[in-house]
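Students often ask why we bother encoding 3D structure as a string. The short answer is that it lets us treat folding as translation between two languages. Here is a chain of 294 residues written in the first language.
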Amino acid sequence: MQHFLASEYSPVLPEQAGFHIIPVPLEQSVSYGAGTAGGPAALLEASQQLEAWECGHAPGETGFYTAPPVDCGGPVEKVLDRIEAATARATSCAALPVLLGGEHTVTLGALRALAKEAQRSREPFGIVQFDAHADLRSSYEGSPYSHACVMHRAVADLGLPLVQFAVRDFCREEAEVRKAHNVTHYDAYFMARVGLPEQPLPEDFPRRIYITFDVDAFDASLMPATGTPSPGGISWREAHFILERCVAGRRVIGLDVVELAPIQGLHHCNFTAAKLTHLLMGLAHAANTGPDGA
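And here it is in the second language, the structure alphabet:
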């Protein structure tokens, strides 16, 4: 198994790491293009080509521990339990969990672990989602645990506040769920015409945030290696800009990069996903160690 950015940083023990990178090669409910099971391994391999720094950030200096891949065999409910346990182990080591998907359903396991911690500590958190799709269906193709339902589970079952960026494909049911659960959204169509406010997160949004980034949030020209590549998405620079605004003055408690479905011979997509993961870790570390994040 490859370790994240081992070309620049030697892997450390779990208890010594600032970040636990958790590969989750889940592929059970993909509904169009397949291949997400290969996403984590491809991302880890591509990470060997990264530089030690990303936009002035060097999160690897806090220590990277790459956990063994989560066993994704058997019923999805059991897989979610394993993801939850891996996430809880990361937080027990005072490390920030970084999940590598796999289909978007993997996010639910991490959110369950963090929601239990938040309930114990009475410190709420919210979700910042980048995605071409709203993922707010109550059920899809017979399963409430489809990748198309993960944010419904988050807002309806876990009661977590949510802000969405770059969505451009959703249905009437999902629009109604947005209204019912007060989901803030900056859809791709809106951002292309109006832009983004200086403070994209609501004033009453929790200070602690979890970032989930489905790579299909990017325009299909940048990221064709995903199950449902969609035109009209955001660029790399736009994603970076939005992320910087979202983490400012906040504390990041976890993150994931999901839905990479590698295409043989098209390695730029794997590298983009690895670079995104590194950037997210850098921004999280800077936010968490700054004057407003400690």
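Translate back mentally: The first strand starts at residue 19 and ends at 24. Keep this in mind for the problem set.
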